[in-house]
Specification:
Layout (H helix, E strand, L loop, with lengths): L2 H25 L13 H13 L3 E3 L5 E2 L5 E2 L1 E3 L8 H18 L5 E5 L4 H11 L3 E4 L12 E2 L7 E9 L3 H12 L3 E10 L3 H10 L3 E6 H10 L5 H12 L7
Parallel strand pairs: 5-6, 5-8, 8-9, 9-10
Antiparallel strand pairs: 1-4, 2-3, 6-7
Helix pairs in contact: 1-7, 2-7, 3-4
Length: 249
């Protein structure tokens, strides 16, 4: 390794360590229990910056959002907005492609999760020259009554592409569908994850590795650095992450 390459490696490792320390100071060591789902902190911070800049992520501790699950949350993430920004869309698809190439080099196909995961799945499958299928939340009630659209041979090694992971319930439902179809799920990649303990436990139980371009702790760290939020709001945002079920009930 040349001297210049060695210096670049040292700088990269330092930046990764510093960013993880910054997140740890906000969320504490509990956030980092047995996790390594975000592989590149530079990419994670850049994705967080993009999401904040285009308001794909909204942070509001005073007027929380109501999620479909019924949870009240001070954050709402709509990654579909990134599709309207070509440069950001490409940055995300390139990041996912790189991650899959690195962590799942034996992947034989991409499975998009309907509906928000389908566009990025198509971009990534095209970039990696891999077949694409997508999975509906439930089977159609007409025609061929398909839940999986597309065709893969039984035993094919699949990567599931999800736009966002919260509790992991609906995402892991896709794993069940693919496994019932005799497909081999190698893992899942998402644009963003909240990193909830309940999701960690669910993915571990299903034996599904999860990697994400960006996570909640990185988002909050970047939002603080860019002055999107105050220290008081950080306390509320951390409190919600620790116990989202009972936060401000």
């Amino acid at each position: 390794m040349s001297g210049m390459n060695l210096i670049l490696v040292i700088i990269y490792v330092f930046c990764q360590s510093f960013a993880n320390l910054s997140k740890q100071l906000i969320f504490g060591k509990d956030y980092f229990h047995d996790r390594n789902m975000v592989k590149d902190i530079h990419t994670a911070r850049q994705v967080a910056t993009h999401l904040l800049e285009i308001e794909a992520v909204k942070l509001n501790t005073a007027q929380p959002f109501r999620w479909a699950s019924g949870w009240r949350a001070p954050v709402y993430c709509d990654n579909r907005l990134t599709l309207s920004y070509p440069a950001i869309r490409k940055y995300i698809s390139n990041g996912i492609s790189t991650l899959i190439h690195s962590e799942f080099p034996k992947a034989e196909g991409i499975a998009g999760v309907a509906t928000a995961g389908i566009p990025q799945a198509a971009l990534v499958a095209d970039s990696l020259s891999l077949p694409l299928i997508y999975v509906r939340s439930k089977a159609k009630t007409h025609g061929l009554a398909n839940q999986i659209e597309g065709r893969m041979a039984p035993g094919s090694k699949m990567i599931i592409l999800e736009d966002l992971v919260s509790t992991g319930g609906s995402s892991l439902g896709v794993v069940d569908v693919l496994r019932e179809a005799k497909l081999n799920v190698l893992g899942m990649v998402s644009i963003f994850t909240y990193g909830f303990r309940i999701a960690d436990a669910a993915f571990s139980e299903k034996k599904v590795p999860l990697y994400s371009l960006c996570d909640y702790a990185t988002l909050i760290d970047v939002a603080r650095d860019l002055k999107y939020i105050s220290n008081e709001q950080i306390t509320e945002l951390k409190s919600w992450w620790i116990d989202p079920t009972n936060w401000k009930t």
